[in-house]
Amino acid sequence: MALRDKFGRAITDLRVSITDRCNYRCVYCRTGSEGPQYADLKLDEYLRIVQVFVDLGIEKVRVTGGEPLLRKGVVEFVSELAQLRTKSAKPLDIAITTNGHLLADLAQPLKDAGLNRITVSMDAVDAEKFARITRVNNGFERVLAGIRAARRCGLDPVKVNCVLLRGFNDDQIVEFGKFARDEGVIVRFIEFMPLEEDRVWSPQVVVTLDEIVSALSAWKPVRQLPPNTASETARRYTFADGIGEIGIIAPVSHPFCGHCSRIRLTSDGKIRTCLFSLLDHDLYRVMQDGGDEGAMSAYIRAVVEQKEARHHIGESGFVPPSRSMVHIGG
Ligand code: SAM
User: Fold this and answer.
1) Which of 16, 24, 29 to mutate to test the pocket of ligand 1 (most atoms within 8 A of CB)?
2) CATH number of 13-327: 3.20.20.70, 3.90.550.10, 3.40.50.300, 3.20.20.30?
3) Has this prediction a pTM greater than 0.85?
4) Could you give the CA distance from residue 270 to residue 283 in angstroms, rounded to a whole number?
């Protein structure tokens, strides 16, 4: 039986963080200095865990971090993932989310290893603004080269994620509209969520879906596209001439918890049932204590039962999650 939580949501997407180290220090995610890190598992330990999830009906795996391309052996890891078969004997759908800094050299090897999809995070299409947000110099050109390399080797579509912060990069909306059209990538704006290390979130900083749509429409009219799947988190738009796709992921202004299909494994082997969970579930401990596939599978089922109904962003009494995004895996 497929994994289902107590609200009837089918859990089909697993996000696996393979390190919580990151070479960027984005202002909306991290503090300016190196914080504490959790111990990574060995890559074959993640594989063993993923296999158990796949046997339980997981169909998509997104490799993330921290910055997953920092992890030595990531190409071989993807190649091993590509050997796993879902219940219907289909290959797993394998995606990566990366900041793109190391992508130019890795795009082709990752594609050859069996990677199906890639999302690159990029929060400005202007080198100076990019450096201000990431707190890394000369990153912009590298990320751009990474995006282009991914396109060239046929990773299609390439998605580009942008988190907008009022007063920081909200002047980039139209620039990203142009970028989507010129570069042939899907740009996805993500509303800023309270998941950062520095606790700088406030509702006033969030640039909402409605604002993004109005800014784009004031430049060129947009029309909405139908969702690709029932559990799709992004609302999709294109321009009147059909050129360019923009997605908007609006967990703050238009939450989509009711059809959440996700579960996460942190780099230290803990299950997170929601980005905003107040606790982790130690699957790695079950494995270390000698638990076989049956024991791990029973543990996962019990944990999925506890998946939260929804997040409580913006409500009075909101309690920040027990881990920040970089230590969860986005
Ligand atoms: N290092 C990789 C990257 O940059 O894509 C993967 C990990 S990163 C945590 C995954 C995604 O989460 C990125 O697109 C990032 O912009 C997004 N993100 C991080 N903190 C966020 C926040 N507080 N609200 C919304 N999105 C956030």
Assistant:
1) 29
2) 3.20.20.70
3) yes
4) 5
